[in-house]
Amino acid sequence: MIAAGNQEEAVQNLNVIASALNPVNGTEVNDTVKAEKTAIRTSVVTSLKKVNVSSIDTLSSVAETLTQVTKVKSELTESTQEDAAKLFDDLADSLDTLTNVTNSADIVDSAEEIFIGVTQLLDIKADQGHTQLMKDQSQNNAKLGKMKKSAGRLLNTIDKISNTILSGQTVGDPAVVIQTESVNIQMEKIEQSALGGRHLTMGTGGDTEVATVEFPAVVDGVDKNMPDLGLQVLHMKKNPYIWDRSAVDVNMEVLSVELTSKNSEVKVTNLSEPIKVSLTAPGTYYMY
Prior knowledge:
By secondary structure, this protein is an alpha+beta fold. 44% of the residues lie in helices and 16% in strands.
């Protein structure tokens, strides 16, 4: 059907199949059924790779279907996870390409579809990586490098999504917030002068004030030739940096703050007062 050009209908059919694979109320299946469902999930991902994403509607449909088919980690082979991660990254590239012919609201909606699927895979990678390190903390560099490549690609896709959204924003636009059960990202175009004294709260799932970021009254560590900046705050319930052996001891929530200018990271140095970052988990309070 995809080869014949009926892409939308094909993706809709794949979405129905993917949704039907997901258990209701956590129903468990035997090994035979699990193997069959694993093979079907692999087949769906392979089929989605063949779709020509030339419109925002197709992109959203593919992202939604890919998210559905990668929901159950026990029914995903490692190669299927990697194929799905690569496809999400390609969708993020397509999203950026489509910004010139798509309104900003549709861009944000499609970005959210990609983000949900990417963070779902990132959770799987974080769980797998932590489990492996707990079993064997002496993992060789090749294994750690493989973990870094897998998780790093997904983190890079998140950055791509953020940059695409920020490139379509102007100072004064409301912040764009995308929240899932395990990850929350907030993106906003802001005047550098407005950073001083800024206080942000973040949360995931049903929580709203799990993490906070507080900028000092004067942010004097940023190049003054950058009047407008992109501000990205990312809160994750699970530590995705699983390629370092220290992840065994740092299996906790993570919060990152990034300033950008024209999609490039802005360095902040020699602050007179620190940026305060805190998490509600016991003993997790940091100042940078």
